[in-house]
Amino acid sequence: MPLALADWQHELAAGRVDFALGPQAQFVVLPDTEGWRWLATARFPNGHTPRATEQVGSAIWVRQEALWRDERDLRGKRVAAVDEQAFGGFMLAERLLLQHGLHAGKDYLPVFTGYPIEQTVEALHRGEVDAAIAPLCLMEEWRARQGLPAESFRPLSVQTTVNGCVSATPVFPHWVLAALPSVPEEQATRMMGLLFGHTPAEGMPGWSPPVSFVAAEQVLAELGRHPLHPSWQNQGRKWLQENKLLAGALGLAVLISLINYAWMSWLAYRRRKKLR
C-alpha cells in the first residue's frame, strides 16, 4: 500500500507492514530498524525516459530572467521545497546551501509546498517564490508536460547529469526493499532469489544487492537529523517540546530573578547616593 511521507513511520511502527519499499534516506531516519533485512536496491536502465521517482538528487532552479547566479545569491530569498523531511525535495539542497553559508530560516525562507511534488516548480512558474528545490528529473519532466521551452528555467549549479536530468547534489538510489522482523528468514531469502533471478521487462527496473547507507547517513548527520547523532539544537528543541511547563517555569523564575536583581541594584544605588 502506498504511504504518504507523514504516515510512513506510523504504519511501520504499528507493525502493519511486512515488506517496505522506499527511499534509502527515509529508512535511515527511522528511529528503530533492529531486525530489518535490506534485500535489494532498484536499478533503472541507462538511456530510458527519466522519471522524478527513480533516483534521488536535487537541483535548485530559478526563472531564466532571475538575477541570481549561484546559491549565495539566494540570501534573503523565498525558496520552494517539497517537505522538511523530503530527502531529494529539501534536505540534499539544504546541505548544499549550508555548504555555501546559508542556513534555512535564517538566511533564506523555505516555502514548503507539500505534495504532489510538482507544486514546487509550479510556485516558481507563477512567480510566488524566487527559486525552487526540485528532486532529480522533476523540472525536466514537468516542463515537458507543460510544453515550456527548455530555456524557461535554469539550475543555479550542476554537479552531474543522469539520463538528461541535472543534479546539483550527489545522486542516491531511491527504491530500497526491506524485510521487516515479521518476515521469516526463509521467505526473505526466497524473495531475494526471485528478484536477482528475474529479467526485467524493457524500461523496467532490475535489482541489485542493497547499496550502502553510509553516504545518506553522512548527509543526515551534517544536518543534525540522524537519529543516532542528533545535534544539540535538535536535542534542545525536543526537550522544550516535551517539557513546556517546566521550561515556562524556569523562564519565569529567571525573569523574576532579573527583575529582583535590577530592583535591588537600584535601591543600593539610592542608598549610596544618600550617603554622599
From TrEMBL:
Record lineage: Bacteria, Pseudomonadati, Pseudomonadota, Betaproteobacteria, Neisseriales
Name used for this protein in its record: Sensor histidine kinase
Gene name per UniProt: ttrS2
One of the record's GO molecular function terms: protein histidine kinase activity
EC number, as in UniProt: 2.7.13.3
Keyword Transmembrane helix included in the entry's annotation: yes
Alphabetized Pfam families for the sequence: Phosphonate-bd
Enzyme class: transferase
Keywords, ordered alphabetically: Kinase, Membrane, Transferase, Transmembrane, Transmembrane helix
Spans through the membrane: 245-269
